[in-house]
Amino acid sequence: MKKISLENKTVLVTGAAGFIGSFLCKNLLETVSGIKIVGIDCITDYYDVSLKQKRLDMISSLGGEFTFVKGDIADRTLLDTLFEQHKPSVVVNLAAQAGVRYSIDNPDAYIHSNIIGFYNILECCRKNAVEHLVFASSSSVYGSNKKVPYSTDDKVDNPVSLYAATKKSNELFAHAYSKLYSIPCTGLRFFTVYGPMGRPDMAYFKFTEKLVKGESIQIYNNGDMYRDFTYIDDIVKGVSAVMRKVPDSTEDGALYKIYNIGNSRPESLMHFVETLENCLIKENIISAPGKKELLPMQPGDVYQTYADVSDLENDFGFKPETSLADGLAKFAEWYKTYKEKR
Questions:
Q1: 182: helix, coil or strand?
Q2: Whole-angstrom Cα distance, residue 259 to residue 270?
């Protein structure tokens, strides 16, 4: 694999006000000499925009070379102008309409951002000869697969949500563009990312809000579900490492590779809830465990996620390692301050 330096380079990060995007920008500004980051985000109201602004404030407070553009990657004219002005060497596409359940009732948002937006990114990379395109995929692409742990060698032809289908489409588009136009592309299948300043639509955040209000938390499939929870710092370390190595050519000539980034340690949903409650009690956010409402499996959900990260470990010497207890403790510590300032 060919190594590339990020020093004194311009990097475009889409979804820069998002959870992963903002922490990636922070990490790069803190660790890479002379880096210039251009961030783009359309700041949708899918969840509280004030949290997105707090993330942007976090980045700006570092004092590095960070330029923020409020805009939509589905706006081709804007994207063409941005590439022409800043000429990014590396592009990290993290902009997307997220959420499995939301995709059932709001399909247009997913086609707009995840299909049209990603196509625009590929076209701009083609016309501007970027050194490396890194893009977010998702563990959702494994859909109804029964074999675990999930390997990138497995077939992923059975998505159970439109969100998953759009992410699989991203992988197919990227492979085609890589083969046709020699664009080095690396896709990353993220597994249930969590941590401070995370997405309020994620289970750990929603559970916390309900526990604080004394409301029952809804637990699907009667609690018989497993998730491979991955702490935000581990995700960012993985993305940062991947950015620095261009994938080797595949058998068909594409400069293309897919990796899982997950903790490779599935946790039961009930254990997850118990651990979260203990962390919240320790921070005096709640005084006792909350009420639980057990419900059947929801459309679009899967029984378990479990990442095989051997390729990531072999190629980068890196494996996520933050335990669920440590990660949720850091979230609870942050949430206490967040709650007090609201």
A1: coil
A2: 28
Domain borders along the chain are 2-194+231-264+305-321
Helices 269-282 and 324-341, packing angle to 10 deg: 50
Give, in words, the CATH class of 2-194+231-264+305-321: alpha beta
Token output for 289: 């465990």
**Are the C-beta atoms of 294 and 244 separated by less than 8 Å?**
no
| pLDDT one-digit tens code per residue, 37-79 | 999 999 999 999 999 999 999 999 998 999 999 999 999 999 9
Residue type (1 letter), 272? F
Exposure of 198 by Cβ count < 10 A (0-12 exposed, 13-18 middle, 19+ buried)?
Answer: buried
Phi then psi for 36, rounded to 5 degrees?
A: -120, 125
Asked if residues 14 and 121 have their Cβ atoms less than 8 Å apart, the reply is yes
**Alpha helices, H only, 69-129:** 76-86, 102-105, 107-110, 118-128
Question: From CA 196, how far away is CA 60, in angstroms rounded?
Answer: 18
Distance (Å, rounded) from C-alpha 281 to C-alpha 262? 27
Write the CA distances from 203 to 76, 195, 241, 260, integer angstroms. 34, 12, 28, 21
Is the pTM of the predicted complex or chain greater than 0.90?
Answer: yes
Tell me which residues are annotated as active site: 163
DSSP string of 196-227, one letter each residue: TT--TTSHHHHHHHHHHHTPPEEEEGGG--EE
- Note the Cα 16 to chain centre separation in Å: 11
CA 115 to chain centre: 16
Smallest CA-to-CA distance from 242 within 2, 40, 66 is with 2
